[in-house]
Amino acid sequence: MAVTDAFTRSRDRLSRRWVSDRWIVSQRYDLCFFIGSCILTLGFLGLYHLIQQFSRWDPDHSILLTYFIFTAFFDQPHIFQTFSRTHFDPLEFKKRKNLHTWGLLSLIGIGFLVIGLGREADLIVFAAVFGSYHIIRQHYGFLKAYKNLNRDRDRIDDWLDFGVFNTGMFACFFNDYTEIGGPVVIYQDLQSYFPELPPIFVDVTWSLFLFFLFLFVARQVHRLVTGLPINLPKILLLAATLSTHYLVYFATATPFLVAEALETAYHNVQYQGWMMHYQTQRFPNIKNIALKWFAVAMAYGLIVGIIEIFGLSDRGWSMWLFVPFTMIVLYHYLVDGIIWKFSKQPELRALLFGSGQPTSVNDENS
C-alpha cells in the first residue's frame, strides 16, 4: 500500500509539472459536454448516410428526417434553454427587460415582414451564417476560459492561440461560401442567391492557419522542454473544434440542412452543458432545476421541430409559424453575447467559475 501511494504521489507530481488541467466544472463533465460532444458531428454524418442506405424514401426525405432529429432533439432545445437566463433569472430580466420583451417581439415582427416580402429563404441562410459565427465565438469563449483557469496567459501563447483558432475556423467558414456556383439550396426549391466569397479568402486564411499551427505545435514542444506545463483542456478543445469544422467544410459534401446539423450539434450539447451548470449554481434551492428545464426544452424542441418540417416541406401557411421561431433563434444569437458578459458581472463570474474566475465563456461576452 505504501509503495502504491508513493507511486501515485509521484505520478501526480509529474502530471502537475508537465500538464495543467483545471476544468470549468470537472474533468468528466467538461470532457462530456464541452469537448467530447464533438463526436456528434461524426454521429450525424453517419446517421444521414445510414438513413440514405436503408431508406426507400426519396433522397430529400432522408435530408428532412436527419434535420428533424437534429432540430427537435438538439438545436431547438438549446435555444429554449436561453430563457432560463433571460426571462427566468429575475436579476437579468429586470436589468434588460426591454430587450427581453419588446426586443424579442420586434424580431418576431420582422420575421412576419420577411414572409410578407417572400424572402424567407434569404432569412434562413442569413440565420445559418450568423449561427456559424455565433458557434465560432462560443468555442473561442471556452478556449479563453480554459486559458484563464490554467493561468495560460503568456503573451506569445495568447497570440498563437488566437491565431491558430481563428484562422482555422474562418478558413472552414469561408470555404462554405466560396464558389457556390448557383443558389444556396436549402430544401428542394427553397433557395437563396447568397453572395459568394472570392477564393482568395480561403487561400489566405488557410495558409495563415498552417503557419500558426506550425508555430503553435513548436510552442508546445518548447514549453515541455523548458519545464512549462501545457494546457491540456485548451489543446483538447482546439483539436475538437478545428477537426469538426474541417470535417464539415472541407472533408465532406452534404446538403445544406445536413451540414447545419453536422456543424451545430456539438455546439448544442456544449451549450446545454453550460446552461445546466448555470441553472444548478444560480438556483440551488430549486430541486432538480436542470432536469426540469431539460425536460421542458425537449418538449419545446419536439413541437418546434415538427413546425419546421412542415414549413420546409409545405411552405404555405406553416411558414408563418416556422419563421417566428427562426427569429427566436436569432434572438438567442444576439442576446447570448450580452447575458454572459462576465467583465461587467463579476458576481456571475464568481458563481460559475469559483476561484478560477476567467473573463469569459463566450468571447462575445468579454
Automatic annotation (TrEMBL):
Keyword list, A-Z: Membrane, Transmembrane, Transmembrane helix
Origin: domain of life: Bacteria
Record's keyword annotation contains Phosphoprotein: no
Transmembrane segment boundaries: 31-51, 63-80, 101-118, 124-143, 200-218, 246-269, 290-311, 317-335
Record flagged with keyword Transmembrane: yes
Name of the molecule in the record: Uncharacterized protein
